[in-house]
Amino acid sequence: MLKFCYSTGMTQITPTNITPLRCAAEFMEMKSSVSGTGNLMEQTEKSFEDMRYWSWSELLMVVKQCQSLLPASESSGVLERCLDSLVGRLSLTSEASPCPSTSSPDSSGVRFSCDSKSTESLKTVFSRASWWFEDLIFMSPVLVEMLAKTMVSRKFDHALLSRFLFYYHKSKLYTVSSSEKCKIVDTVVDMLYILDQSCVSCKSLFEIHRVSLNLKIAKSSRNKLEDMIGSQLDQATLDNLLVSSPHGANYLYDVNLVLRLFKAFLRGGLCQASAMRLSKVASLMDLYIAEVAPDPYLKPSKFLALIMALPESARDSYNEVYRAVDMYLEVHSGLSEEEKTKICCALKYEKLSAEICIHLSQNKKFPSKTVAQALISQQLKLKSLLHATSNTNNSCPGSPCRAIEVKNATKKDKESEEQVILYAGKLDLPTDNKNLREHLQGMQWRVMELEKRSNLCCTVMKENFSRGFIVGGEGVVPHC
């Protein structure tokens, strides 16, 4: 600036000095002409017009100067221009597969790949797309936030931006103080939150969460992190959920965290969660419940909350839940009958298999009332199954399985069906659990016999069709 003032407004402006010159001109309000020559503000403005001709290393050097001169560089508009130019170049190179060599500080510009092989591996493509990650590690959290927002406004690839944010977090975190770590985590989480969540890695989010457990990050950032994880909970694994309990708690795992994650998953609405995603999340919850059930310090209210965290429609079977409850009752033998009953009420008996129901009926750890309800529910389910099977076989008299007559087998099938229906219709609901078990086993045997005969019927029908026969009303008639 002094050279400019004492040399009648003549000084050389280059990328190495343009940032401090512009900030000095702003501070000194050098907007008026000096001795009839152009002022410093005008000269720096003209130099910025040549920014598109700067090399990549020169552009990075200017950005570093802007970072050291904050907030002056931001108020003067230099930083905004530099970041906009930087993002523009990255957008072009990400589309043109830049060479990894462009990350060299000695690079004279942005080079483009000459490799046109169609068999290039996906790993190589990813490495080329991320060539600039290492170059921008020097940025402070403030600059990273500005860069990310500029990229989002310029429609930059969200998947690539999320990978950079994870890379920045991993590379910077172990070389700074605790306060800087908090700033880095807060910034990375806040920027990831504004991206398309389908482009954000669930595994990497859990890595950030694991690091943040020992840091005092902002509550808003922690909530955003849990929301992002919860929205992709169907991609998580059991190991991800097994987080140690907070300091001072006597239970083994952080159950409250898992409950918050599952609530975050359901917060988007069941209509947006496909049946496959719900099934994956339910399986994950069943694994987690089985893992925490042996914890002797886990309260019944928390264990019950885990079982009921998901709606009934999420599970096709409650067998795994039963096994977890069985284990929990075994470890917590001192529970009152009321507490046991509350836990058992979370079981959906109609979604238990017959084998599990029989096991439950012989399980002394369960309350007697629960055992009776399970057996009655299973009995009603088998009755409905027998009734539905009977209606299916008798609904269409001209159907193949009803019309085929295989010598003496047809007569035996009809008699067997009538016996099964009669057996089911005469069943009462006895209060004695032993009688219930006997009726239950008898009905299961009848259902198995009926299924065998149905399979035989369909097999014979397929053989007749393969030989060119069709089914008539009273027997098998050759096909004309």
UniProtKB/TrEMBL annotation:
Residues 94-114 are annotated as: Disordered. Residues 97-108 have a biased composition (Low complexity). Keywords: Ubl conjugation pathway. Residues 130-381 form the NPH3 domain. One of its GO terms (biological process) is protein ubiquitination. The keyword Kinase does not apply. PANTHER family: OS12G0117600 PROTEIN. Belongs to the NPH3 family. This is NPH3 domain-containing protein. It comes from Cannabis sativa (Hemp).
